[in-house]
C-alpha cells in the first residue's frame, strides 16, 4: 500500500481518505491558530520518500514487510486475550508520565518506514505542531505527547515483547481482516483466517456495537489506553480514543470497519482525523529542545494524570 500526499496541505486527501469521507460525513473542529502559519504536511518523509510507502525498494522496507508478515500471522483472538489479561494487571512498574517519556528514548519503531529517530522526538514534534495550530486544546497537546508511551512494553523491564506485538498498524481480531490492511496477504497464515466464527464482516461482534466492545490487535495503543483508564486519567473521551486507535489506519485512513462504530466513536473520530495529520507528517530530523518545552508539558501531566501511575 502506498499512502501518497499530492500537495503539502491538510485539505488535500488521498484516495483512501476520500473513501473515508464518503462513508462518514462530519465537520472538522476548527483550528484556533493565532497566525496564518499553520502546520503543513510535507511531501516526503525523513528518508526522502512518500509517507507510508510500503512498496519502495530498500533494506528498511524489506524489514518492515517482514515485521508485518510476523504480526499478521501471530495476532489472533487468543493472543490478544492473553496479552490484555497479562498487561491489564499493570504490575510492571510504578513511575510518572515524564519518566516514561524518557524511557522511550531507548525505543526505535521497526514498523515505521518514515523515521528511525528515538520516539521521544516524534512525540514532541507531534505535540508542538498541534500546540501551534490548536493552542486552546491542551488535552490534545498532552495526548500527542503520550500517545506512543505504550511502546515501552518492548523493553526488558516491561516483558520485552517482540516488536510485532507492540507497534505497527492495528486492526480488529474476531472478524474478517479487511483488505485495506497493509500487507494483507500474510493473514492467510493466521489461524483465525479460516475460522468461520471470525471470518465474516462482523464476526463475533454486531453492527454498531461500538469500538470499545471490539478486540484490537495487541500493541502499544491498547496498553497505553489501559494505563490511562485504570490510573484515573481525566483526559476527555476523544483523547483516550486517539490513544487507543491512532494506529488503526484501516479505519481512520481507509474508512473501513465503520459498521462497528457507535455514535460516540463517530464524534471522537473527528479528532482522530485531526491528530493523524500531526502524528504522521510531523516526523523529521529536526529535534525539539526538550528542556525548553518540558515545563509546559509537566503542567499538563499534573492536570490530567496522578503523580505516579501503575504500568
Strand portion:
under 5%
Unreliable stretches (pLDDT < 50, length at least 5) are 1-27, 33-39, 44-52
Biggest β-sheet: strands ordered side by side in the sheet: 1-2
Helical content (DSSP H or I, runs of 4+): 40-55%
State Rg: 18 Å
Number of distinct helices: 11
Structural class: mainly alpha
Globally, the shape reads: globular
* Spatial separation of the terminal alpha carbons: 34 Å
Average pLDDT number: 84
**Largest sheet properties:** 2 strands, antiparallel
- Please tally the β strands and state the result: 2
In N-to-C order, the SSE pattern is HHHEHHHHHHHHE
Polypeptide structure, described:
The protein is globular. Helix content is 40%, strand content 1%. The relative contact order is 0.18. With 311 residues, it is mainly alpha-helical. It has a two-stranded antiparallel ribbon with strand order 1-2. The chain has helices at 15-23, 59-74, 77-87, 97-103, 119-133, 138-146, 220-230, 237-245, 249-252, 263-281, 290-304, and strands at 94-95, 309-310. This is Inositol oxygenase. Its EC number is 1.13.99.1. It is found in: Cytoplasm. Keywords: Ascorbate biosynthesis, Cytoplasm, Iron, Metal-binding, Oxidoreductase. InterPro entries: Inositol_oxygenase.
Short description:
InterPro entries: Inositol_oxygenase. The protein has 311 residues and is mainly alpha-helical. It has helices spanning 15-23, 59-74, 77-87, 97-103, 119-133, 138-146, 220-230, 237-245, 249-252, 263-281, 290-304; strands at residues 94-95, 309-310.
